[in-house]
Structure formats: structure tokens, C-alpha cells
Amino acid sequence: MSDGDRPGVGDRLSFGDRLAAAMTASGRLCVGIDPHAELLASWGLADDAEGLRAFGERVVAAAADVVGVVKPQVAFFERHGPAGMQALAEVQRSARQAGLLVIADAKRGDIGSTMAGYAEAWLDPAAPLAADALTVSPYLGVGALAPAVQAARTHGAGLFVLGLTSNPEGQDVQLARSAAGATVAGEVAARVAELNAAGGRPAGDQPSPAPLGDLGLVVGATTAPLAAEHGIDLTAGRPPLLAPGYGAQGADVAAMRAGFGEAWERQVLVNASRGILRAGPAERDLVAAMEAAREDLDG
Questions:
Q1: What's the Cα-to-Cα distance from 43 to each of 38, 245, 287, rounded to whole Å?
Q2: Distance between CA atoms of 39 and 27, rounded to whole angstroms?
Q3: Is 107 a catalytic residue?
Q4: Distance (Å, rounded) from C-alpha 12 to C-alpha 209?
Q5: Ranges of residues in the chain whose predicted pLDDT is under 50
Q6: pTM of the prediction?
Q7: Contact in structure between 134 and 122 (CB atoms under 8 Å)
Q8: Where is the active site (predicted)?
Q9: Structure confidence at residue 251 (pLDDT)
Q10: From the CB of residue 3, how many other CB atoms can be counted at a distance below 10 Å?
């Protein structure tokens, strides 16, 4: 599917509007590009930069006519140094040229000019590593993300802020409570809602056509029920919710629908990686796996 066939892709709309358009056109499935060494070997590819490039390009070719969003896991490219990062840059460029939105899963987080440097590296459309959105960590304080928020505003890009992650040890921090009784994850979600409102996005309850915010949250598919249990509002500010954990990692559609509640219908973008990538390396097999997952999620 070309840029011209995808509503909102390739123009100057905000990230939230482009993501909402992509999800309307192609569903809620986001395909991970995760070239584990084991997957490279099973695909008959070398564990080097050329293998990474070939792996990523095959996923992009299969995804371009099926889904609207891909998410490269930066770590698997970064472990090969400059050559691996060059391969990532080429894969991301191919994905965007194919009309796909790219979420760079780099989980960056720092302060001041350092955070600004990370933001420009990933969110400036003229940068070699340009992506449509970036995952970021709020655990130096949500306020420390201000340079990334500003870069996202400037470039029409998005951020996905770590909220309720699926790793068990994350809950020790994310569900810790302040003296006022709020969880850390709840405070993060509330600040993201405020930032979306400050950027002209909705601040609270909105009718169903309300747009998505440009700033989203990462909420694990298996941990979403903890939001309601601990009084965390995932709908305020209409953040897009990036949900890893579907399929091979244990979450099914019924559980996610129940866990995300009101947010499920329009806000949740579900990432799938291993369950799809294990179908490769033939493009027809990857396409079939993506189509099956998309039907499961949106059927």
C-alpha cells in the first residue's frame, strides 16, 4: 500500500492523527522487527549487519500491504555497532517509504541537552534514524522528557512513555505509591494526559470521534488489568496505548479487551513479534501470519 493510499500518512498531520488513520485503515496490529540471533539463524541469515538488513527488509515487504505500523527493536541492531545501526536506518527508511509508521523501540531517557540529542536523533525527519515515534523512559521524571516532547511537537512525531510494563520487576517501581496515595504509573499516565491537553489534544472524557494524543503509553497486554485495579486512568488525554505481550507472550484478545476496558476500542495498538516472525522467511508465510493476527485482533 503506497503513501497515497493511507489516510494521514506522508502529510503534515500530527502523529496522533496519522496513527488513528493508520489504525482505521489497517487495524490495531503493530509488527515488531526483532532480529534475534535465533530468528536470523532460522531464516538462514547471518548474524551480522547484512543479515539484519535482509531480515528487516523482508518484514517491511510483507507488512506494507497488511498493517499500518512496525516497531523495530533497536537493541538487536545496536549490538552490531555502527554497521547494525546503518542497517536499522535503511530498514526504517524503507518502512516509511512503504507508507508504514515506524515506532523506534529504543526506550531512551535522560535530561536536558542529552535528552534533546536523543530526540533529534530519532524524531527529526531529516535524521538518518528518523522514526515516526520513539519509546522513552520517564524514570528520571516525566518533566525530564520535555526536550523529547518539544521535538515531537516540532516534527509532528510521537512518544510512547513506559507506563505499566509486563516485566514482573517493573511493578516494584510502577505500582509504588507516593505519600498522597497515587501509584508511580498513575502519575505518569496523568502527566501524559496533561501534556496531550497542552498540545491541543483532549484532556478528559471525549465523544468517540475524539483524536488520539501524540503522546502515548506503553502498557503490557498482560498487565493492563492492573490499571483499573490501581485506579490508573488509561483514557484521559486519549493516549495511544502500545501493548506488547500478545500471542507468544501470553495475552489473548478476550483478556486484552477485558483488561483495557474502555480504552480497547480506539486506543490500543497491539505489538506482535515472535508469533509472526517465526512464520518466516518466505514473504507469503509472513503475510499469512500477519493477516491471521490482524483478523484475530480486529475481527
A1: 9, 23, 15
A2: 26
A3: yes
A4: 20
A5: 1-11, 202-209
A6: 0.92
A7: yes
A8: 107 (proton donor)
A9: 86
A10: 13
